[in-house]
């Protein structure tokens, strides 16, 4: 007997991208165990975004070493922070970000 698979429409890659990106903006760092530290009392995460004529990419860097990349074409890498190189790069980036907190304006619309 052949198995039948439902033909669900594929999600729009840009909607998936915006959904993943939006989850970070709505994230409560305390709910996922991201704690302030003496070295980083303000910055628990950063998004770095790159735009090109054909699309965009968002790199997510969190204080626990979590590192992921989402692309508007639907691709991406989730969990790169499990590897030492990306995790250390993320932690270095957040330390630099901490030094710029006083020079930034609060953003509430993304």
Structural overview:
By secondary structure, the chain is of the alpha+beta class. It is 26% helix and 21% strand. It is built from two helices and four strands, in the order αββββα. It has helices at 13-26, 84-98, and strands at 45-52, 55-62, 67-71, 76-77. It has a four-stranded antiparallel beta sheet. β2 and β3 form a beta hairpin. The longest helix has 15 residues, at 84-98. It is globular, with a radius of gyration of 17 Å.
Short note summarizing the structure:
The protein is α+β, with helices and mostly antiparallel strands and 110 residues long.
Largest sheet: 4 strands, antiparallel
Q: What is the SS-derived class? A: alpha+beta
How far is the N terminus from the C terminus? 50 Å
Strand adjacency order, main sheet: 1-2-3-4
**Total of helices:** 2
Supply Rg. 17 Å
Overall shape? globular
| Low-confidence residue ranges | none
Secondary-structure topology with pairs:
Blueprint: H1 13-26, E1 45-52, E2 55-62, E3 67-71, E4 76-77, H2 84-98
Antiparallel strand pairs: 1-2, 2-3, 3-4
Features:
110 residues, alpha+beta, 4-stranded antiparallel sheet, 2 helices, 4 strands, globular
């Amino acid at each position: 007997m052949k198995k039948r698979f439902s033909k669900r429409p594929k999600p729009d890659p840009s909607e998936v991208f915006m959904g993943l990106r939006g989850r970070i903006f709505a994230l409560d760092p305390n709910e996922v165990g991201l704690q302030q530290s003496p070295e980083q009392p303000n910055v628990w995460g950063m998004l770095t975004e790159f735009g090109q004529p054909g699309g965009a990419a968002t790199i997510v860097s969190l204080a626990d070493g979590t590192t992921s990349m989402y692309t508007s074409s639907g691709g991406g890498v989730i969990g790169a922070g499990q590897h030492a190189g990306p995790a250390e790069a993320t932690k270095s980036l957040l330390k630099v970000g901490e030094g710029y907190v006083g020079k930034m304006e609060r953003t509430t619309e993304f």
